[in-house]
Amino acid sequence: MNKRRDISFTQGNIITSILLFSLPIIAGELLQNLYNSVDSLVVGNFVGPAALAAIGVCGTLTQLLVGFFVGMSIGSTVVVSKAFGRGIEEDVQRSIRYTFTFSTCFGVLLSLVAILLSPLLLRVSGANQEVFSEALLYFRIYLVGLPFTVTYNSGAGALRALGDSQSPFLALALTSVINVALDLLLTGLLRMGIVGVAVATVISQGISVAFICHRLRCRIGGRWR
Length: 225
Hints:
Elements: H1 14-33, H2 35-46, H3 49-86, H4 89-124, H5 129-144, H6 146-161, H7 166-189, H8 194-219
């Protein structure tokens, strides 16, 4: 397995190891929660107050979903880290495959259920009639990308179990830049309105999953079957 990014907790200064491992995680979670804030900033400048209010209403729901999936990633970390600790590469590959299969299936199922229940969820979160239609449109497009969010967090948990907390952060740093660029292109230049920022978020999340899958394949020597 590729060890270039590994951080060992059995050698060297434990405080230094903890800091080096945890700082990218903290920064990554901050970036993951900034998607909605960036959307709000772009929409507020290029669309108008109604669209800005619509995204604000969805913010609580999207942050709740992100927090839930971050918690799920801890479970991925536990499963993969146990296999990695046994030192059997086939077990590591199997645990990663199971993690990704479950994450993808669960993400798709949850996405479909949430899309159906999105009017109810928005009413519970306090969306008024003036912004309801735009909030519903934004939230449903965001939910299309929900499987990407689930899979990214599970993959990030698997990488952290292998001692690599930098790759998930790099994935989010890269896709945050892409998200900003797409927001400006789709909403600022092409005038797609609230649809533009929602589509930009989904595309960025998809790219983050591709990056994480690539890193996982590299970490296990390209033999992830």
